[in-house]
């Protein structure tokens, strides 16, 4: 597997476009269109929030129906959530605008939105945006990058990646882009993620691969404990690479899953480090746990604790906060089996050993925690399972950003 320059347009047959529709922002692009020259098998995962945006329900219907997907329209600024029948009508209008412009059946058009909840989409602006973008679709790297920027809200950087790998002598490409900065908490988060590949694979196996990989990537990040109404991940595979169709869980399937995990891990970590107001990536790695479920629960509890996040921001090696979060996580363990370390590019230090606090070097710990990425490593000494979760520190700016988000 090789990481290459590019994103959503890296795979053969995929194009993208973006435009300024004036939905909420007045000085930047706020719409993107992803298009495949041929219909794709599609897999997806969606928010666990009971309150689901109209666009989420629209996309779920396409994915669960088994129908092909050939295009996705994304807007930022307004979420189209809690919008009643008018919100569903807006989804249909956007999809039919693509049908009119590109000749793609509207039932194979995904829609995704991110932004303020409870506001109706300006359908006229969005359908006009679809018309503009349909005329400017491009397979270039630059078009993909521009699309990744158009879907940002409070993100400070765009997020995209692409890789190539070999299956049966055919070069396969997998690209992706995502957005997410706040209202991020498992399972899924205020995140939109779109993956494109020219791989030939059966839909059921694509869905299974996506579901498995999401469990250890996007579902292991948290910024603020809020699970969004709009979380959507769509993976489109158009088969243009020409490999024999992957229809069983063989070595080719595992090769694809490895690439999928690499791409999703990269995007997930980029989202966690770009949390609203964040200054650090905060990683929790739990090893030698009794079960995979325990490892996931413990690591997510550590990065999800506001007190832990504040300690990371303050470079305070207050290990009690991390142990406390583990203790209320719901996982059962013996604190006398636990070792806890802090580590970063600046070094590694153990601060808690088998139930006993250590007299550690505070200055060394401070230097370790001053790094841009800090890991809390916990050895449970109770089994062979492990998991890693990602989050960010909690800063004053998080409150500033969210205090006046609507206005």
TrEMBL record:
Cleaved signal peptide residues: none
Recorded GO MF terms: L-glutamate N-acetyltransferase activity; L-glutamate N-acetyltransferase activity, acting on acetyl-L-ornithine as donor
Keywords of this entry: Acyltransferase, Amino-acid biosynthesis, Arginine biosynthesis, Autocatalytic cleavage, Cytoplasm, Multifunctional enzyme, Transferase
Pathway assigned in UniProt: Amino-acid biosynthesis; L-arginine biosynthesis; L-ornithine and N-acetyl-L-glutamate from L-glutamate and N(2)-acetyl-L-ornithine (cyclic): step 1/1; Amino-acid biosynthesis; L-arginine biosynthesis; N(2)-acetyl-L-ornithine from L-glutamate: step 1/4
Positions of substrate binding: 153, 179, 190, 276, 402, 407
In its UniProt entry, what is this protein called? Answer: Arginine biosynthesis bifunctional protein ArgJ
Query: In which family does this protein belong, per the annotation?
Result: Belongs to the ArgJ family.
Q: Its GO biological process terms?
A: L-arginine biosynthetic process; ornithine biosynthetic process
Specify whether Transferase is a keyword of the entry. yes
What does the annotation say about its assembly with partners?
Answer: Heterotetramer of two alpha and two beta chains.
Question: Which classification does the entry list for the species?
Answer: Bacteria, Bacillati, Bacillota, Clostridia, Lachnospirales
GO CC annotation? cytoplasm
Active-site residues per Swiss-Prot or TrEMBL entry:
190
Catalytic reaction list: L-glutamate + acetyl-CoA = N-acetyl-L-glutamate + CoA + H(+); N(2)-acetyl-L-ornithine + L-glutamate = N-acetyl-L-glutamate + L-ornithine
InterPro entries from the entry? Arg_biosynth_ArgJ, ArgJ-like_dom_sf, ArgJ_beta_C
Q: What CDD domains does the annotation carry?
A: OAT
Which species is listed as the source?
Butyrivibrio proteoclasticus
User: Which EC class heads this enzyme's classification?
Assistant: transferase
